[in-house]
Amino acid sequence: MSQPTETSPPGGPEEPTHYPRPRACPYRPSPELRELARSGPLTKVRLYDGRTAWLVTGYEEARALLADERVSSRSDHPNHPVLAESHLHMRATREMAQEQEGGFAGVLFGVDPPEHTRQRRILLPSFTTRRIGTHRDEIQQIVDEHIDLMLREGPPADLVTAFARPVPMMVICAFLGVPYQERARFEEHARELFDPTRAERAQQELTDYLTDLITDKLARSAESGTTDGLLGKLIRDHVRTGGLAVGELIEFTLAILVAGTVTSTQTIALGTLALLEEPGQFAALAAEPALIPGALDEIMRYLSLVEQLARVALTDIAVGDEVIRAGDGILIGFAAAHFGGDLTTHPDELDVRRPPSGHFAFSHGIHHCLGHNLARLQLEIAFHALVTRLPGLCLAEPVDRIPWYDDLTLPRLLTLPVSW
Questions:
Q1: Which pLDDT tens digit goes with each residue over 386-408?
Q2: Which of 21, 137, 193, 279 sits between 20 and 30 A of 407, alpha carbons compared?
Q3: Which long-range contacts (C-beta less than 8 Å, at least 24 apart) are formed by 317-322?
Q4: What pLDDT was estimated at residue 35?
Q5: How many domains does the chain have?
Q6: In this structure, are residues 369 and 99 in contact, taking their beta carbons and an 8 Å threshold?
Q7: Residue 397 contacts by C-beta under 8 Å, 6 or more apart in sequence?
């Protein structure tokens, strides 16, 4: 791999500001980041390794660049921005790392057209609104079972381990066609993908497991012509016809697993914390559950879990008064755009009665999240259950005693002690 190069001089005489900015609160981006958003739509920032990149903070500018074919998402480009050295060793964040071998950066969010177009065309029929809607009853049952268990065991409870973590994992397992009795093994390895010290081993163990699972599904499909879940459908329609290799199917599965679990888990956990901490917000939803679909958009904007996506300019691109040069690293600042004032009338407040439209929680353009219909459905069902079945939900510990961390991929609560 060629060495990274500094392709553009700093945008002005001042030293570029350091990025990223750490959060002081787990469910809100740094106030310093919001100040950057107010300074203009494009800012030169300096990363941990001394290199610079363009941070796009303007809403319209971010939207345009996400849809621009002159911008690449390939993580094997030598100037692809990396936010922390640890990201180079985490399989679960390969879309932000400069690695060429293995993993799943070579599918979906880590590739450009025409390869991205081919891959998305294979998966898209399984993620339509109508197809995802057929899973509503199954998701409702998963959510209800976990609420039932919390009610039986009584307060206090850890909402992360009792609800926010297992529900998305079980939904993804059911959607993929992973046997229910094997979900514990699947979940353990999936969590470890985000631990730099165990990520490589977890990647290998998950790959071995999925290889065995898919081999078994292939055999059953050959015997009966049918098998269950998304894996079964892809085996029937694409693997058996020669249009999809088993190795690529495994990469698809890993990408869907990562994208579909940790973000949903933390949207539930951090979203609940924000609703309970911001005055009147949880109570408003408990009093009027019909607000939940719009409130979910406001929660995702306010949390801004994924604060940025990394890109590289393939050619010179004029943005306002600046020119992003070919080879420059770009950070599309979702959080900065969410708090810049162009998206909502109340950027610094959480208000479930005033939802935004067009937020970047599911990205935009060709890399708009393929699984957004599945994510929205399970999140709407999960929050509806929390506010209707646990209307008296409250924190069981002061917020400053709730453990959390942020590895610069997204913030995560380790526990969320609650009562009701």
A1: 999 999 999 999 999 999 998 88
A2: 279
A3: 317/65, 317/68, 317/70, 317/71, 319/41, 319/42, 319/56, 319/61, 319/64, 319/65, 320/40, 320/41, 320/42, 320/58, 320/61, 322/11, 322/42, 322/54
A4: 79
A5: 1
A6: no
A7: 417
CATH label of the domain that carries residue 308? 1.10.630.10
What distance in Å separates the CA atoms of residue 235 and residue 227, rounded to the nearest whole number?
Answer: 8
Interval 80-96: pLDDT, tens: 998 887 776 554 444 43
Report the alpha-carbon distance of residue 350 to residue 275 in Å, rounded.
8
Peptide bond into 22 cis (omega under 30): no
Low-confidence ranges of the chain (pLDDT < 50): 1-13, 91-104
SS3 14: coil
Question: Which H or E element spans position 313?
Answer: strand 308-313
DSSP of 154-222: -S-EEHIIIIITHHHHHHHHHHHT--GGGHHHHHHHHHHTT-TTTHHHHHHHHHHHHHHHHHHHHHHHH
In a domain? residue 3: no
pLDDT of residue 190: 74
Please report how the helices 136-153 and 372-389 are oriented relative to each other, as an axis angle in degrees rounded to 10.
Answer: 30
Q: Which domain holds residue 196?
A: 17-95+104-419
